[in-house]
Specification:
With 238 residues, this protein is mostly helical. It contains eleven helices and three strands.
Amino acid sequence: MSLHPDRGAEFRSVRALVERLGLPVKNLSLFARSFTHRSYVNEHSALEDNERLEFLGDAVLDFVVGAWVYNHFPEMAEGELTRLRSALVRTDSLAAFARNLDFGPVLRLGRGELASGGRDRDNLLCGAFEAFIGALYLETDVQTAAQFIEPLLESTREQIFAQPDLSDAKSRLQEWTQGQKLGALNYALVETKGPDHARSFEVEVRLNGNALGRGRGPSKATAEQEAAKAALEKLGVK
């Protein structure tokens, strides 16, 4: 089946990227989807965006990064492992990986996102990186995904440890609730506002179904951090 003429150059750029990274190209459309933002789909109705792949890639990253920190830092306690994993998979860290891999020029964005500098926006780069990992997992297996991810983790290792505090609000809240044996936390998306190029998310963190705090941000990850901060303040946890 021939490609739509307006998309041929974009597919070629995706193929060039995947081949430059030394990855197998079996289902090119799957990799192309990983770079396709919802705003692009709104202007090209026959396409699918990268959000489902982003969901899958997020889960693969959590597993691979969790295994990597567990195996590389046998002296670390659970809380330290959680903080390190969180630092490695947070939005700015994954966006930095995407920049280093030159993902920006390959992103498929709508006109509004392009005009507002979406190719260099952390949340879009992070989402594309997670979706790309999801596509790679589907095309190969978790071992191949790990072989791709682990050198990136090694490359940022010193930078991560140079930070004075690896802690983040979600990890601190999780450690505290686990330490108090209070039950399980979950983060629920409450509201999404705004156009694709300026979207805002509101998230509520709940403990055993009871609301602890709400947060808002330009990505779900940022909103979750803000909700965790609000919960920590409510609980008086320093």
